[in-house]
Design goal:
Layout (H helix, E strand, L loop, with lengths): L3 H24 L1 H9 L2 H24 L8 H14 L2 H17 L10 H11 L4 E2 L18 H6 L5 E2 L17 H10 L6 E6 L12 E7 L7 E3 L6 E3 L3 E2 L6 E5 L3 E7 L8 H14 E12 L8 H14 L1 E9 L2 E8 L3 H9 L23 E3 L5 E3 L18
Parallel strand pairs: 1-2, 3-4, 3-9, 4-5, 6-8, 9-10
Antiparallel strand pairs: 7-8, 10-12, 11-12, 13-14
């Protein structure tokens, strides 16, 4: 049973989301967002409420074995650990190469064909410093019109090479956490300079800051603690270098292709329009290195099939953007999704091209809109709610309960 404080904090958070969506329909999403960003007192109160919810109430629920909840922070850490340090990146590299060959009908494709072959070749020929994964110097992936030797194609765009010196942990049940004992295990299991460069968007209180194998850049509209930089991700620029304010507390620009992982934890449902959610995902795509991960956690307390259409539409849009879904998991109060930025964009878009959707299903009418059920709820100036009828009817109670983890 949630405490009174827990309910009050959650009610305030939901009221901020609700008011922002309402103003978006009345004034338009861009105007509504500008008005929202200007409300410094509300933003600060929101940040404080989120931090208290996460560090006190959600943490208590995670610690209670009777509630069978899973921590969203641990989910992100485990995905990154398995992908970057336990062979996941090699597995998806080889899968992508195989799919690309099938698409081009080029079974006799010569040259580098697996992650390990490319990595070994890089070790013997390149003098570049060690890093996690390849980093593109351009906004777009390898040209889909060509099927060149992978080594030549990727070396042209790489500023970092994949390291083959990761040591695999022999502990099958390794628990990755922030406590001192587990941190020492992680420290011993990989090189100090092999860290996952992670961008946490909407970070609030920098929950990943103490994770040993993360190099974190934490940003938020209204940081609730030191270590989190102020940034409006929607208006932030992407360029050839990082740009900060004079006091180094605000992010104005981040470098293209500079992150291994971008995390959207309870972020997309905050934004009032499908176009703004897509804009955030596109920015994540451009900030990620090829082969990098976009990790999305979005709240939903319903059963796994209740909003499956929305999750499939997200996959459809992100596939067309250049992402391949690497993992999906439904927790009791959230959907957890991992998407990999493909080296070959056509490998990602292939899944979308094979889908067959009803012409009446507007979730799939556009590949530049990311919908949530509230998008089908109409607000009026009298603050009443009108649901769309028929099959398009939205459940206005979706997200009524924020996730406990």
């Amino acid at each position: 049973m949630a405490s009174t404080e827990h309910k009050d904090l959650a009610a305030f958070i939901k009221s901020v989301h609700s008011n922002l969506r309402k103003e978006s329909q009345i004034y338009g999403p861009e105007t509504a967002w500008r008005r929202h960003v200007a409300e410094s007192d509300t933003l600060q109160k929101y940040a404080e409420a989120m931090q208290k919810l996460a560090t006190k109430h959600w943490a208590e629920n995670v610690a209670d074995p009777k509630k069978n909840t899973k921590c969203r922070i641990d989910w992100v850490k485990s995905q990154c650990w398995e992908y970057f340090f336990r062979g996941g990146i090699e597995l998806f590299w080889d899968r992508e190469v195989n799919i690309n060959r099938k698409i081009t009908n080029d079974q006799s494709h010569s040259g580098i064909s697996t992650y390990q072959e490319w990595s070994d070749s890089e070790n013997s020929t390149s003098g570049l410093s060690d890093g996690l994964i390849c980093s593109n110097s351009e906004l777009t992936p390898v040209d889909d019109k060509d099927t060149p030797d992978l080594k030549k194609s990727l070396n042209k765009h790489c500023s970092m090479k994949p390291s083959t010196k990761f040591e695999k942990s022999t502990e099958n049940n390794l628990q990755i956490s922030n406590n001192e004992h587990d941190s020492s295990i992680v420290q011993a299991s990989h090189r100090e300079d092999c860290k996952v460069k992670l961008l946490d968007v909407g970070s609030c209180y920098n929950p990943f800051g103490g994770v040993n194998f993360f190099d974190v850049t934490a940003i938020d509209l209204a940081p609730s603690c030191d270590g989190v930089l102020q940034c409006d991700f929607l208006s932030m620029q992407i360029g050839q270098e990082d740009v900060f304010s004079a006091n180094k507390q605000q992010v104005e620009q981040l470098t293209v292709g500079s992150f291994d992982t971008v995390v959207f934890c309870l972020l997309l449902e905050y934004l009032p329009s499908p176009e703004q959610r897509y804009a955030c995902c596109k920015k994540a795509y451009n900030l990620l290195k090829s082969g990098g991960l976009l990790l999305i956690i979005t709240p939903d307390s319903k059963h796994v099939g209740a909003n499956a259409r929305f999750m499939k539409s997200w996959r459809y849009v992100l596939s067309n953007l250049g992402f391949m879904r690497a993992k999906y998991e439904k927790l009791p109060h959230a959907h957890c999704l991992a998407f990999r930025k493909c080296f070959y964009k056509r490998v990602a878009t292939r899944w979308a091209s094979l889908q067959k959707f009803s012409k009446d299903d507007e979730l799939f009418h556009s590949d530049t809109n990311i919908f949530i059920p509230q998008d089908f709820t109409t607000w009026t100036r009298e603050d009443t709610v009108e649901c769309v009828s028929g099959d398009k009817k939205a459940d206005v109670n979706f997200y009524n309960e924020l996730p406990y983890t």
